[in-house]
Write a structure and sequence with these properties.
Distance between the termini: 20 Å
Number of strands: 3
Organism: Acrocarpospora phusangensis
Strand content: 35-45%
InterPro entries: MbtH-like_dom, MbtH-like_sf
Radius of gyration: 10 Å
Helix content: 10-25%
Protein name: MbtH-like domain-containing protein
Shape: flat
Oligomer: single chain
Strand order of the largest sheet: 2-1-3
Largest sheet: 3 strands, antiparallel
């Protein structure tokens, strides 16, 4: 099963990124790694209902 990491942009947007790849410029890893659904749960928890998951 592929693993992902949660990344965040300088503007506070969250996204999932393949765990074995570096985030794109302007984004950084949050330190949360795992499978897809675990990340969606984490993003929903820390970002709340006001953001958009990309």
């Amino acid at each position: 099963m592929p693993t992902f990491k949660v990344i965040i942009s300088g503007e506070g947007q969250y996204a999932l990124w393949p765990a074995d790849s570096e985030p794109p410029e302007g984004w950084r890893a949050t330190g949360v790694d795992g499978v897809h659904q675990e990340h969606l749960n984490h993003i929903a928890e820390v970002w709340g209902v006001h953001g958009t998951i990309v």
